[in-house]
């Protein structure tokens, strides 16, 4: 049997488990009555979901969300899908989503981050609900979902592009002293 397909089936199962667990955690905070629950996560293609620099990238974004939305981090964790944290904010979910989208667009390396926002009445807000196109592909900038669906790029090329973004982040944050937070 093909070894790589066994590995990838196991990974898919692990990712699904991680997703369910995160969803459950989000639900706890939504049901507790917070205006907005924000899930900030690294989103790396390929089997290695936490290459060097990922944790610092998450911290870079987390700090900005806390500042812009007076948000509070309530979960800070890592699972098979990568690093993630949950934040709560008293601000409107639409505003939180807008700040999240702005953050995702702020730098090319920020495409490696997902900012998902959940409200008690709205459920999960989509980029489209604010008039934005779907998430851009790491390589060509077209819709990432479309590129994956049509197998447009070689998987290794997507992984290389992601790692290049990560190196770029690490270099820039080191140069500018942008790195914030004590964990690595
Ligand atoms: Zn593409």
Task: Report on the architecture of this protein.
- By secondary structure, the protein is an alpha+beta fold.
- It has one domain.
- 47% of the residues lie in helices and 17% in strands.
- The chain is built from 5 helices and 5 strands.
- It has helices spanning 3-31, 54-69, 93-106, 144-149, 155-176; strands at 36-42, 72-79, 82-89, 113-119, 123-124.
- The protein has a 5-stranded antiparallel β-sheet with strand order 2-3-1-4-5, sandwiched between helices.
- β4 (113-119) and β5 (123-124) form a beta hairpin.
- α2 (54-69) packs across α3.
- The longest helix is centred in the N-terminal third of the chain and has 29 residues, at 3-31.
- The radius of gyration is 16 Å and the shape is globular.
- 29% of the residues are buried.
- Residues 180-184 have low confidence and may be disordered.
- Bound molecules: zinc ion (ZN).
- The site of zinc ion has 7 residues, from loops.
Q: What spatial form do the alpha-carbon principal axes imply? A: globular
Major beta-sheet overview:
5 strands, antiparallel
Portion in beta strands: 15-25%
What topology, given as strand order, has the largest sheet? 2-3-1-4-5
Low-confidence regions: 180-184
Helical content stands at: 40-55%
Bound molecules: zinc ion
Helix segment count?
A: 5
In short:
This protein has 184 residues and is α+β, with helices and mostly antiparallel strands.
């Amino acid at each position: 049997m093909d070894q790589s397909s066994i590995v990838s089936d196991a990974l898919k199962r692990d990712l699904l488990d991680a997703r369910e667990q995160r969803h459950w955690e989000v639900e706890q905070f939504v049901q507790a009555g917070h205006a907005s629950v924000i899930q900030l996560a690294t989103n790396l293609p390929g089997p290695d979901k936490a290459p060097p620099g990922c944790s610092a990238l998450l911290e870079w974004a987390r700090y900005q969300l806390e500042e812009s939305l007076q948000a509070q981090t309530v979960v800070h964790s890592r699972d098979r899908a990568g690093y993630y944290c949950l934040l709560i904010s008293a601000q409107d979910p639409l505003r939180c989503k807008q700040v999240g989208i702005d953050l995702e667009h702020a730098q090319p390396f920020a495409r490696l981050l997902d900012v998902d926002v959940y409200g008690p009445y709205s459920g999960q807000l989509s980029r489209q609900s604010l008039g934005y196109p779907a998430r851009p592909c790491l390589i060509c900038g077209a819709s990432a979902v479309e590129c994956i669906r049509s197998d447009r790029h070689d998987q290794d090329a997507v992984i290389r592009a992601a790692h290049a973004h990560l190196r770029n982040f690490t270099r820039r944050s080191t140069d500018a002293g942008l790195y914030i937070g004590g964990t690595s």
